[in-house]
Amino acid sequence: MPQSREATFMKLRLAGRLAGTMLLATATAALTAAPVGASPEQASTPEQSSAVDQQDRPGTLLEAMQRDLGLTLAQSRQRLQRETIAERVQRTVRGSLGTAYGGSYYDSAAGELVVGVTDRAKLDEARSSGAKARLVEHSSAELDGIADRLGGLLPEAPPSVTGYYVDPADNSVVLTADRGGAGAAEDFLRSSGVGETAVRVETERSPRLYNDIVGGNPYYVNDGARCSVGFAVQGGFVSAGHCAREGDGTSSPRGTVAGSSFPENDYSYVASAERGRPAVNDYGGDTVPVAGSTEAPVGSSVCRSGSTTGWHCGTIVSKNQAVRYDQGTVHGLTRTDVCAEPGDSGGAFVSGDQAQGMTSGGWGNCTDGGTTFFQPVNEALGEYGVRLLTE
């Protein structure tokens, strides 16, 4: 971004006093693009089973998992294999349980998917799918409904309230507030009349937008603003919505922003004639393949690519997160404990070889750690009717 726009973004704060969650608008292209004029590669059928084999090399996902999650090489391989199984089990059990589904998460210590079930009679059905089942009070649909109602009231919340998310491990909705703001958040919750028994208040550092403009594998917007490519899709790529407005032009790769949604959502689609690759930059001299976009459960490992800080890994903490940025509230984000810094916006989040989403914002840094939110990629693919390029 030019100095004028950079200054504007660096001043952006979450509603009220939220100076901590950043939109990563300067990030490097997380994919490598070929020269202008080439057509996108045709995608083949996704193959999850090849993920671990293809990533068994230095400088890639396995190395980052060892560094950031404290795992050995063997443990990293095993975790990826188990998480792939958990993704499939989650998809199956969610459909079979129907209204009795109470959410699910990956237990990294046990190496298995834990599924909440509201109907005792269906516990064995959940176990037969390969999951660990537990009886819970609230269904996933009920918690999502409470979260949606909180979202509708968020504009009336005190500035200390920073957002909310659904926590499947606790079978609750979490209302987040900045440090020192718990009392005001609890007062707001009581006055809201929204499922107090299913909602708890947590405090954390205030979020801000990640938007510092620095170099590395960039794509540039009209005025020089730089962001990271998220994923190559048929006819272009997807990235973060806060990076550019519809109609803006981009360069390196050259294209036009055909659609952009921010706030409320944080995704964009850039139409480009340049050749796309089903891969993500691992900042170790290689790329990580993209084989599909199966949604990983809470508790799964996830890695992020961005130009400021490169390749970092962590864990999916929760989903359906709302974050109050100064420009408005973004709903439906996924919360992670992966670090990020200004300049990482729009970059790719992957779990194994499965695309998960594009970096939105967060708080903290890659020295002390922090929280980063991403926009789920499948929502963007559906909105723009584009197909993810896969190996």
Distance between the termini: 33 Å
CATH class of one domain: Mainly Beta
Give the strand tally: 22
* SSE pattern, N- to C-terminal: HHHHEEHEHEEHEEEEEEEEEEEEEEEEEH
Task: Calculate the mean pLDDT score and round it.
Answer: 83
Form type: globular
Instruction: Please give the radius of gyration in angstroms.
Output: 20 Å
Fraction in beta strands: 25-35%
* Spatial ordering of strands, largest sheet: 9-8-12-13-14-11-10
The name of the CATH topology of one domain is Thrombin, subunit H
| Discrete helix count | 8
Q: What structural class do you assign from the helix and strand content?
A: alpha+beta
Instruction: Look at the structure and name the CATH superfamily of one domain.
Output: Trypsin-like serine proteases
Q: Examine the secondary-structure arrangement and name the CATH architecture of one domain.
A: Beta Barrel
Q: Main β-sheet, in a few words? A: 7 strands, antiparallel
GO molecular function, one term: serine-type endopeptidase activity
Organism: Actinopolyspora biskrensis
InterPro entries: Alpha-lytic_protease_prodomain, Pept_S1_alpha_lytic, Pept_S1A_streptogrisin, Peptidase_S1_PA, Peptidase_S1_PA_chymotrypsin, Streptogrisin_prodomain, Trypsin_dom
GO cellular component, one term: extracellular region
Structural description of this entry:
The protein is an alpha+beta fold. The chain has a domain at 3-52 and 209-384: Trypsin-like serine proteases (Thrombin, subunit H). Helices cover 22% and strands 32% of the residues. Residues 1-20, 26-59 and 211-216 have low confidence and may be disordered. Belongs to the peptidase S1 family. Keywords: Disulfide bond, Hydrolase, Protease, Serine protease, Signal, Zymogen. The active site is at 242 (charge relay system), 266 (charge relay system), 345 (charge relay system). Residues 1-38 form the signal peptide.
